[in-house]
Amino acid sequence: IMSSEIECYFETALELTKQAGKLIRDRISENKIVEIKSCDIDFVTETDKQVEKLLIDGLSKQFPAHRFIGEETASAGGQSSLTSAPTWIIDPVDGTLNFVHGFPHSCISIGLFIDCQPTLGIIYNPVLEQLFTAKKGQGAYYNGKRIHVSGQTDLTKAIVMMENGTSRDSERFNCLRANQEMLVPVIHGIRSLGSAALNMAMVAMGAAEAYFEFGIHIWDIAAGEIIVTEAGGVVCNPAGGPIDRMSRRVLCASSQALAEQLTQKLVQFYPTPRDD
Ligand code: IPD
């Protein structure tokens, strides 16, 4: 694909993201009507649906041959298979629980995959005006400035991000607790922003060294993957080896060495069903 084509895809997506971001910004401190999805802490609001529609309508008008995997379309029974066709993977509001509470860490996350490979990523938090972007081979940016991972190689000097997530699965909770118990005594600290995409952005900009989660979906990580790798970081399977994008598991880190230290120590959980 020509780089001018990628540029056109990027500019179109960015313009729509800015428009859609206004909906999130205008409504974050209002009362929302909340619907429950997979369990009592997995939410969807009218804003999630409107943002997704605005983005998919806008992109499909410009690029009629492109395909889409959207969080709310998938939740409503749409399918999530990733083919070689250009595919936009969209989380309209990543951090919906934050959005519902008015906690200012929610974002739009958009990744474009071509030939099943990440090509561009946009993560936009319209509340705090944080824009993270990356295009294949062209580096990662935060509000227009180039960013890099910290490069830290020592887990004992790391901030590690992890999440409670949006399921009440007791086995997953046990795994979470075991990992917390293993990490807290040896690392610098644990953090969570309540958005997988923004956690990945923190690793990309060198503010945190690692993030892992069992139970995320492809739309939570599709933009973050290329932003982290273009910032010089590593995105992989939390059990080691290359990322399995539909497995609902992810680990990203500031270096290969740090990723390996974590993968050797983590208690593993394999969420079902997969995204594909
Ligand atoms: C959620 C957020 C959260 C993570 C959950 C995700 P959503 O996405 O990324 O940080 O822990 O696993 O489902 O549902 O707000 O788009």
UniProtKB/TrEMBL annotation:
Molecular function terms from GO: inositol monophosphate 1-phosphatase activity; metal ion binding
Keywords from the UniProt entry: Hydrolase, Magnesium, Metal-binding
Annotated SUPFAM superfamilies: Carbohydrate phosphatase (SSF56655)
A single BP term in Gene Ontology: inositol biosynthetic process
InterPro entries assigned: IMPase (IPR033942), Inositol_monoP_metal-BS (IPR020583), Inositol_monoPase_Li-sen (IPR020552), Inositol_monophosphatase-like (IPR000760), Inositol_monophosphatase_CS (IPR020550)
Classification via Pfam families: Inositol_P
Keyword 4Fe-4S belongs to the record: no
Pathway listed: Polyol metabolism; myo-inositol biosynthesis; myo-inositol from D-glucose 6-phosphate: step 2/2
Catalytic activity: a myo-inositol phosphate + H2O = myo-inositol + phosphate
EC number, UniProt record: 3.1.3.25
Membrane-crossing residue ranges in chain numbering: none
Binding-site positions, Mg(2+): E71, D91, D94, D220
Class of the enzyme per the UniProt entry, highest EC level: hydrolase
Co-factor(s): Mg(2+)
Coiled-coil intervals: none
Homology family: Belongs to the inositol monophosphatase superfamily.
Protein's UniProt name: Inositol-1-monophosphatase
Protein species of origin: Ignelater luminosus
